[in-house]
Specification:
The complex is a heterodimer of chains A (305) and B (300).
Chain A (H helix, E strand, L loop, with lengths): L1 H24 L7 H6 L5 H11 L5 H13 L13 H36 L4 H15 L2 H15 L15 H27 L2 H8 L4 H39 L4 H10 L3 H29 L7
Chain B lengths: L5 H10 L3 H10 L2 H18 L1 H4 L36 H37 L1 H16 L2 H12 L3 H11 L2 H15 L2 H8 L4 H37 L11 H9 L7 H28 L6
The chains are: A mainly alpha (305), B mainly alpha (300).
């Protein structure tokens, strides 16, 4: 087990460094970052001054090393636009995004797991068909469009919920649904497939044969085993979701890290963008690592692969 | 031919249906696949013949005819789906928008398909260090937040159709690599591959004529999924104002432009979003259907 954890940890660290290099390299895609920063009207001398000020005249690898060492200490430089430390800028906004992520994944699990279980208990029933339809439709629904429809119906027509902002818990209801439905189809399908698989296994037949009541069989025996892969999928989805929060936050004007990313990209605020890409990647790396460890802990067969 | 003779029936019982007949029967018996296929073909025809079908120039502005409602909301047949805030015919923009979505979906899926398949097949066939490197690259790619990276790169390089296509193509290869790697690993252990190796066939030949044909069904399924993925991502990027730029008629951009008038003219948002939903749904239904039909033993 320890060997497995160390191996996965090593891989995670290696992935993290590679991602950090890629997100740093983005700065150089534009050709000359100093010229981009100075603006179109700047003279050659201005550009040269900016180049020296920001250290763009040094070799790229040196700049990367510098950036990485600071980043490891939690210093991501200064935002071009806000003229504030990127780290504190992101720190202020990350709470909203994480809250949204937790709400989103909880919503997805609370709806998808029961649906998947019922669908597996009664294959080809009405509920199974509804669940299948929801998962197929859910995958095809553009999230920004879904969000706008919710705003039209629940905020404008019915007036039940506020259309944008993050002041109260009511502001989080629609964003939670939009972010959560995105993860629903995958979780539901996996729950259904896992339950179908487990329900046809020998130990379930044994449990039924010895006369355990059906509720006990379903929840004590079947669900507990079928849920293992779902938990790790949920962790991975959570990582994806934080990255996907950019669309949801922009629709509902939730001023979280996703919204900050959108603003910063539109404003060419590269230090903030680099830091956000790195941070969102780190979340994904940490979540998948935890999911792998959890899986290996729950299911010893995973440890060998 | 009209009547079946006893002799024919006997022959049928002895030989049974051929694999081709069975496949045809499964295809025509699969509702989702048929619906998806028909809708996709229709929308492709619409995209190809857009100049003939569109009643107006999708770029022609008319300040006299701004925000005309669709015909079912009190408008006229002059503009069946009304006009937008610049007086451009909405139906014509919608029709030309099919071109943008399908082009981006198809070309991005092609680019990512070539990259991902090459990586996946190499990893699955050669194993060892090649596999370790490819698996590592897949991990790196999965860790990068797609929407964020795509937005940032498109913003830096400037939002044009070509840039969006290339960026999405370079980002969406992960599922191809994962699925092709797993499929190749399965096929590699079959006897006919060993037989080809024994008679001295070259590695490229084995890959092309032994491995590829036997993983093609999985490849097609991933192509459809990634096409849908690319279309949704383009729409999201354009909706956020950092994808395809105005005045190009992109469905995501149309939703974004209609957003500010959503209060009074909800159709401006509803119509392009609905068409986008139908297109992606059709592609997904087709992909799911193809998976069922080509691999009936793996039905979930």
């Amino acid at each position: 087990m320890l060997q497995f954890i160390l191996k996965r940890l090593g891989l995670a660290v290696l992935v993290a460094f590679t991602v950090s290099f890629i997100s740093f390299s983005l700065l150089f895609l534009s050709g000359d970052p100093a010229a981009a920063l100075a603006g179109e009207t700047a003279s050659g001398e201005d550009i040269e001054a900016i180049r020296r000020l920001y250290g763009f005249d040094r070799p790229m690898l040196v700049q990367y090393g510098d950036w990485l060492m600071s980043a490891l200490r939690g210093d991501f430089g200064e935002s071009y636009y806000f003229k504030l430390p990127v780290a504190s800028l992101i720190g202020d906004r990350l709470g909203v995004t994480m809250l949204l992520g937790v709400c989103g994944i909880s919503f997805a699990l609370l709806t998808a797991v029961p649906l998947g279980v019922v669908a597996a208990i009664r294959p080809n029933s009405i509920i199974d068909r509804i669940a299948l339809f929801l998962s197929v439709a859910g995958q095809a629904m553009p999230s920004f469009w879904f969000g706008l429809i919710l705003i039209v119906v629940f905020a404008i027509q019915l007036g039940w919920l506020p259309p944008s902002g993050a002041a109260t818990w009511k502001h989080f209801i629609m964003p939670t649904i939009v972010l959560g439905y995105y993860a629903m189809p995958a979780i539901m399908r996996l729950t259904r497939a896992g339950m179908l698989d487990v329900l046809s296994s020998d130990y379930i037949r044994t449990a039924r044969a010895k006369g355990a009541n059906e509720t006990r069989v379903l929840f004590r025996h079947a669900l507990r085993n079928a849920i293992i892969p779902v938990v790790s999928l949920a962790a991975v989805q959570m990582g994806f979701m934080l990255g996907g929060s950019i669309v949801v936050e922009s629709i509902f004007a939730l001023h979280g890290a996703g919204y900050l990313a959108w603003e910063s990209i539109a404003r060419n605020d590269l230090p903030t963008v680099q830091a956000l890409i790195l941070i969102f990647s780190m979340f994904y790396i940490v979540f998948t690592f935890l999911a792998d460890v959890l899986n290996a802990w729950l299911d010893p067969r995973m440890r060998s692969s | 031919m009209a009547s079946v003779t006893p002799h024919d029936r006997l022959l049928d019982e002895i030989t049974g249906p051929t694999p081709g007949q069975m496949l045809r029967k499964r295809i025509f018996g699969h509702q989702g696949l048929l619906i998806g296929l028909v809708v996709l073909i229709l929308l492709t025809l619409v995209a190809i013949f857009a100049p003939l079908l569109a009643p107006h120039d999708p770029y022609a502005q008319s300040l006299m005819n701004r925000m005309v409602p669709p015909v079912f909301m009190g408008g006229t047949w002059e503009h069946p789906l009304g006009t937008d805030h610049l007086g451009r015919d909405y139906l014509s923009r919608l029709i030309y928008g099919a071109r943008v979505s399908l082009l981006i979906g198809a070309v991005a899926a092609l680019i990512s398909g070539v990259i991902g398949t090459a990586m996946g097949v190499a990893a699955g066939y050669f194993g060892g260090k090649v596999d370790a490197v490819v698996t590592f690259l897949i991990n790196v790619r999965l860790a990068m937040p797609v929407v964020l990276v795509a937005l940032a790169v498109v913003a830096i390089l400037g939002g044009s159709l070509e840039v969006v296509i290339v960026v999405l193509g370079l980002l969406l290869w992960d599922r191809f690599a994962v699925v092709m790697r797993a499929s190749t690993m399965q096929v590699r252990r079959r006897e006919y591959v060993a037989a080809a190796q024994v008679i001295g066939a070259s590695t490229p030949r084995i890959l092309l004529s032994e491995i590829m044909p036997n993983i093609a069904n999985n490849l097609i399924v991933v192509v459809t999924l990634e096409m849908a993925h690319a279309i949704l991502l383009e729409a999201a990027l354009s909706f956020l104002g950092l994808g395809v730029q105005p005045p190009t008629p992109s469905w995501g951009l149309m939703v974004s432009e209609g957003k500010n008038m959503m209060l009074f003219e909800p159709w401006l948002v509803l119509i392009p979003g609905a068409v986008l939903f139908v297109l992606v749904l059709a592609i997904n239904l087709m992909g799911d259907g193809l998976r069922d039909v080509t691999a009936p033993e793996n039905r979930s």
